[in-house]
Amino acid sequence: MRAPEGGRPGLQSRGEPVSEAIPIAVTPRRRLRAGDGMILAVALVIVAAVVVMGAFSLVAAERIDVASRDRWNRLVLDSLQRRAAFLERDLSSFAHWDESVLRTAYFLDVEWVHENFGRWLYETQRHDRSYIVLESGPAYASIDGVSFQVPQAPFDEAAITPLVRGVEAAYRDQTSAMQAAGSSAEPRGRENPPVFRAGYMRVEGRPALVGAISITPDYGRVVSPSRVPPVAVTVLFLDRSFLGDLVGELHMTEPLISDTPPPPDRQGIPIPFHDPQTPPAWLSWVPENPGSALLAALLPALVGTAALLLMVAAIVLWYARRAAQELSESEALASRLAYTDPLCGLANRTMLMRTLGERLQRVGSGERLAILFLDLDGFKDINDTLGHHVGDLLLAEIGNRLKRLPFSSLLASRFGGDEFVILVAVANEREDIEAAGSAILDAVRQPAPIAGQTLTVSGSIGCTVAPDHGVDAIELIRLADIAVYRAKAEGRGNVQIFAPRMEREVMRRRDLELELQRALAEGELAVYYQPQFAIDGEAVIGFEALVRWVHPTQGLISPGEFIPIAEQTGLITELDMWVLRNACAQARGWGSVKLAVNLSPVDFRTRDLEAQVKRILEETGFPPERLEIEITENLLFGNQPEAFASLAALRRMGIRIALDDFGSGYSSLGYIRRFRVDTIKIDRGFTQNIGQSDDAAAIIDCVVRLARALAITVTAEGVETREQLRYLQLVGCHHVQGYLLAGPVPVSSIERYLERATPAASASRAAI
After folding, report:
1. What sequence ranges are listed for the domain EAL (predicted)?
2. Is 157 exposed, middle or buried (0-12, 13-18, 19+ CB in 10 A)?
3. How far is CA 685 from CA 388, 543, 597, 697, 716, in A?
4. Distances in Å between the alpha carbon of 649 and those of 324, 399, 604, 645?
């Protein structure tokens, strides 16, 4: 920018006559020529850039289209493979069942099989063909949800029989292997799971997805009469319904199944038939061409932008000389203001990113750079209680402390709010990071006299290391921020070094949060019931309602994953009330057995909990004396008056209160004496340590004695062995539940447990 000004004296040193006219007439003309030349040069550069951009856009559009087609091929192929795997889920509920073995292997109950297998699969999953195949051949057939006599039913023996024989052979091999590894006795129940096979093939000349599974007992109460169990077979033709599911999942456009390769204007993949010798078929669809579409959309804008840039360049160059001096004078001031945080005096985010980018270029095998992301704990409480002015003074004090940290090559910066990023060169990664983190946390937690008060805060630190975790500045800070969340989850006041699992956990939690909202809205959740038994292990005295989430693509998601997310996002109350409503509606006709429903401590923070529970009981007609609300110990911990008030109101309604997971948290005799609970549930951790730890047995004995002295019922959770059950009977426990006796079951399987209910419950039980 200074070149034109520097050339001005030279214009008057060539021996030309100096007059008034020359500076006025000649000098501006030369300025104009220089300006025109610069404008022309910029214009040529812009034109060349536009041409290059156009060529690049064409190449990029083609590559984007190719990448899009490859991605779609993978997506569609993965979807086809998943659908083959989903058949096992559809068939297992029928095939892995004692009742199914009884009604197929011992005697073929066609009506029962059709109701629970053929018609059920057709109505719920749109399975076109369903068969039960014995060693002698097909014994049952369902065609489009209608039961057919086997001789009249279509059965493509050439396509289906090899798959069935493969299942039978695999089952025999599995049984033989288990007998060889264990005892000579026939493996039973869950020890010998069903064998499943699935694949794409042509059935009746049409492409179809076929699945076959051996019918085996689940609890082992029924033994298959032969070494070759019946095989359940199902067929889904790749028809409009199947393609409609693909459209719903992948948002494909005009999918089509054909026996010939797709034309050039369509994209397709061959159906992955189980037998390579099968005549091929193709799944095709109208492809997306995002690159071509983007290029077509950008081309007019590109031309217009080029013309506009030429005009803007001429104007900018015309006025550039006038602004040069002002820019030069303000550059120093702007530089200072741009890179310093005015509150703390530390480097601001801009300076941090600039310095981090420069230092990342120098890291190598012999040098590492630690990025420590510091988040203050409890700072929001200071702002809320003492005001933002006091909070600003505290941030300034912490900034001064961070500047004085005794590290070489240190850069301390304020990232935003109460967040700071510190750059420290490290050699021995873990030891140096722990030392740096400890020094930072010690500096932060020192008491600070501010505004006549002594304030104390702590901090949590997440750390990434370059180049171990990458060399991109933004990505390193993002990963360090993720590590901060882990530090806070680990109790705060500690340092956590980033690990890939932390990012996976954060992404999964975020996805589950969104999916859980959708699942609640679309009714994806279900209520399962775990029977509770008298101490003899035979009589059923009640059921505990448990929520289950079977995701359409991820399968069964553990409550341990989505319940904490629901509590953090505020969905837990809606979820708990949904479970309570559905459980009460389903259990209304179960006689006098009790129904146990868990409520979160978050529910007791709502002011209308009593009204919500009362309204649900009235709408469902469920007797309150049969309802037992299970709470955890941390609800009582902290002496929360609103929680005690809500519990007292529920008890006045006739609802029983159970203290769940007793002994795992903040158990206190004072809490139990202040607020009498009806039931104590011994935590499964103590039950499962019976016989392995003397402490567990002693604690259970003390809890039972205490409960009996206070006239409180004791239920032991997690009973999984006969030894555990015998010990609980010995010490006088009242009730038990656990997988030894029964696991959680859907409402469709409740009837067999109601038959084992106590006499009082059985006498008054209404039909389901």
Report:
1. 509-758
2. exposed
3. 46, 21, 21, 11, 10
4. 77, 51, 11, 6
Alpha-helical segments (H) within 404-472: 429-445
Bond preceding residue 467 cis, omega within 30 of 0: yes
d(CA 468, CA 465): 6
Q: Which residues pair with 138 in a beta bridge?
A: 133
Distance CA 587, CA 273 (A): 47
> Can you give the pTM of this predicted structure?
0.46
| Dist CA 230 CA 210 (whole Å) | 16
Continuous H helices in 625-768 = 633-636, 641-652, 669-674, 684-687, 694-709, 722-731, 751-754, 759-764
Rounded Cα distance, 98 and 414, in Å:
65
Phi-psi region of 426 (alpha: psi -120 to 50; beta: other; left: phi over 0): beta
| pLDDT (average), residues 489-497 | 85
- Return the H-helix or E-strand segment holding 529: strand 525-534
| Range from 40-49, 305-314, 331-340, 381-390 that averages highest in pLDDT | 381-390
Q: Please state, in angstroms and rounded to a whole number, the distance separating the CA atoms of residues 155 and 163.
A: 13
How is residue 434 written in tokens?
A: 């722990």
456, two tokens: 């104390």
- Window from 186-195, 357-366, 640-649 with minimum mean pLDDT: 186-195
How does strand 129-134 pair with strand 137-143?
A: antiparallel
Query: What are the E-state strand segments in 565-695?
Result: 594-598, 627-631, 656-662, 679-682
* Residue from 12, 55, 7, 9 nearest 33 by CA: 7
712: three-class secondary structure by DSSP: coil
List strand residue ranges (DSSP E) for 440-519, in order.
448-450, 453-455, 458-466, 495-497
Q: pLDDT category, 462, cuts 50, 70, 90? A: very high
Beginning with the edge strand found earlier in the chain, give each strand of the sheet holding 256-258 in spatial order. Answer: 256-258, 282-285, 267-270
Residue 57: C-alpha distances to residues 61, 62, 298, 308 (Å)? 6, 8, 9, 20
Distance CA 174, CA 214 (A): 12
The conformation of residue 259, written as its DSSP 8-state character, comes to S
- DSSP designation for 2: -
d(CA 490, CA 484): 10
Structure tokens at 491: 């109790």
Give 385-415 pLDDT, tens digit per residue. 788 888 899 999 999 999 889 887 889 999 9
Contact 681, 660 (CB under 8 A): yes
Q: 523: which 2 tokens? A: 């009714």
Strand stretches in 30-70, DSSP E: none
Between CA 248 and CA 490 the distance in angstroms is: 41
Euclidean distance between CA atoms 269 and 258, whole angstroms: 11
CA–CA dist 652, 630 (Å, integer): 16
Task: Specify the pLDDT at position 100.
Answer: 86
Task: Encode 527-548: b = buried (16+ Cβ within 10 Å), e = exposed.
Answer: bbbbbbbebebeebbbbbbbbe
Residue 86: which residues within 8 A CB-CB, separation 6 or more? none
464 DSSP β-pair partners = 371
The answer to whether 372 and 424 have CB atoms below 8 angstroms apart is yes
The Cβ of residue 24 has, within 10 Å, a number of other Cβ atoms equal to 10
pLDDT of residue 2: 40
Domains of the chain are 340-498 (3.30.70.270), 526-755 (3.20.20.450)
Is the pLDDT higher at 747 or at 432?
747
Cβ atoms of 117 and 103 within 8 Å: the answer is: no
Distance of alpha carbon 481 from alpha carbon 461, whole angstroms? 9
Cα 735–740–742 angle (5° rounding)? 75
